[in-house]
Structure formats: structure tokens, C-alpha cells
UniProtKB/TrEMBL annotation:
It comes from the Bacteria. Belongs to the protein-tyrosine phosphatase family. It holds the Pfam family Y_phosphatase3. This is Protein tyrosine/serine phosphatase. GO terms for molecular function: phosphoprotein phosphatase activity.
């Protein structure tokens, strides 16, 4: 089996056939504990995983795969079977976000939008601001993280940046990880997608004018203002993360304590 040297800072597992695959463990919480490794993983699409990738992946103890892509997107690039893991596909779009808008977030459509100037930072920030509310996929995510027998949990979308980025932020915030650290985890996506972004850019750059190039850079980057749009929307609507978790997901203070007792360790 191929050896995969995991970067201790970025937590990236350098699979040949999947970008931005990383363990979400190791982050310190506000009360001085630390998220355990091996419980939560995030990634871009898994369709290209090689045989060696899968051999290593099977050693991680994945029990649940939560796919945020919509059904058509997942059907075009289906996940490989992972032994011992239950697969669930629940599209990540807010209740008040039109399905057509949610389905415009396949990788191919985003790249096409960049070429025509159809997508930009404002559109993405608006998308982020809607994701945390009335979202069936995140409701399922919050249920799953309370079931120890369903962890390790691997959640992913197409690039592992937007839908997975917000889902990852919710996991870490529920565990008591400070907002600044949550942002750092989000921004690591720029490293996780660097080689993929360079490959795509080399292929399409000759066809891009300046406006389209700026659009490409906007949609392929993890920018603080994108995740901040989601975090600020939560605080504006609910006043605090605690109120948000309780009212959106039924995660009371007692349930948060129980979740943290299992998922955190003392340093």
C-alpha cells in the first residue's frame, strides 16, 4: 500500500484521486480541550479515488459518508463503495434557496460560469449566508455527530470548499472551537485545492478574458468574506451560536456537553 505522509499542519491526506481530504482533529477548543483525530473528515468529491487511495481510506475507520451534492451531481460522479460505511446523499441547500440555484454549484457549471462572468464573490457570499438555515443536510449532520457509532464521519461536496466548508464550521463551532480557528480550517482549503486549481487553470486559461479569470479566482478560492457571510448571518438571526444550535437542531446545552465529552480530549 502506498504511504501517505499526512501534513501535521494542514491535516491533508494526499490522495491521488481526491483533493482537499483532511482530518478535522487536533483543533483546540475555548475550554482548553482538543478535537479527537479520526472522528471527522472532510473532502472534495471521491469519484477519482485510486485503488491505493481506497486501501488507505479503509484504514481510517469511516462509518458514515455524507454527500452534500444534489442527486444529479452525485449520479454523474458517484462515490466509490467504502467497506463498513453507510452512504447518505442529502443536498446542501437552504429551504429558501431555489433548487435551480443550488444545482448550479457543480464543478463544471461553476467553471462555466467563471468563463462567462456569471459567478462572482457577491453571489458566493449570498449563497453562504443562506446555507445555515432550513438545511436538511446540516440537520442530518448535527444528528449524526451525536451518534458515536456513526463516527468517523466523512462529509464532502464537489470541491470540499463551500457546502463542506459551512458544514465543517458547524461541527467545529458545536464542539466549542473558537471562530478564529474555524476560519483557519476553512482557509486551508486553498492549500488543499492548490494543485487542482493550477491544473484547471492551465487548461482553461487560454479561453479566459480578464473578467472570466477574476471569476475563476473568486469561485475557486476560500475567502474569509465567504465564510463570514454564513457566520454573521447566524449571529444576526439568533444572537449566538448556542441559540442557533438549539433552535435549528435541538442541540441544547446538555446535548452539546454530551457531544463534547465524546469528541474532545484533554491536552
Amino acid at each position: 500500500m502506498t504511504h501517505y505522509a499526512i501534513d501535521p499542519v494542514s491535516r491533508i491526506i494526499p490522495y491521488q484521486g481526491a483533493n482537499n481530504f483532511r482530518d478535522m482533529g487536533g483543533y483546540e477548543t475555548e475550554d482548553g480541550r482538543r478535537v479527537k483525530y479520526g472522528l471527522f473528515f472532510r473532502s472534495a468529491e471521491l469519484h477519482g479515488l485510486t485503488e491505493n487511495d481506497l486501501l488507505h481510506l479503509h484504514t481510517l475507520g469511516i462509518r458514515t459518508v455524507l454527500d452534500y451534492r444534489h442527486e444529479q451531481e452525485a449520479a454523474l460522479k458517484p462515490d466509490p463503495a467504502i467497506a463498513g460505511a453507510v452512504y447518505e446523499c442529502i443536498p446542501a441547500f437552504a429551504a429558501d434557496l431555489p433548487i435551480a440555484a443550488a444545482q448550479s454549484h457543480t464543478m463544471e457549471e461553476l467553471l462555466g460560469g467563471a468563463q462567462t462572468g456569471g459567478f462572482g464573490p457577491e453571489m458566493l457570499a449570498g449563497f453562504y449566508a443562506k446555507l445555515p438555515f432550513g438545511n436538511a443536510s446540516y440537520r442530518r449532520l448535527m444528528d449524526l455527530i451525536q451518534e458515536p457509532e456513526r463516527l468517523g464521519l466523512l462529509h464532502h461536496c464537489a470541491a470540499g470548499k463551500d457546502r463542506t466548508g459551512v458544514g465543517s464550521a458547524l461541527i467545529l463551532l458545536a464542539l466549542g472551537v473558537p471562530e478564529e480557528t474555524v476560519m483557519l480550517d476553512y482557509l486551508l482549503t486553498n492549500e488543499g485545492l492548490a494543485s487542482f486549481k493550477a491544473e484547471i487553470l492551465a487548461r482553461i486559461a487560454p479561453a479566459l478574458d480578464e473578467r472570466a479569470l477574476q471569476g475563476f479566482q473568486a469561485i475557486m478560492a476560500a475567502k474569509p468574506e465567504y465564510l463570514n457571510a454564513a457566520l454573521e448571518a447566524i449571529k444576526e438571526r439568533y444572537g449566538s451560536y448556542e441559540a442557533y444550535f438549539e433552535q435549528e437542531y435541538g442541540l441544547t446545552a446538555e446535548r452539546l456537553d454530551a457531544l463534547r465529552s465524546y469528541c474532545l480530549e484533554t491536552i
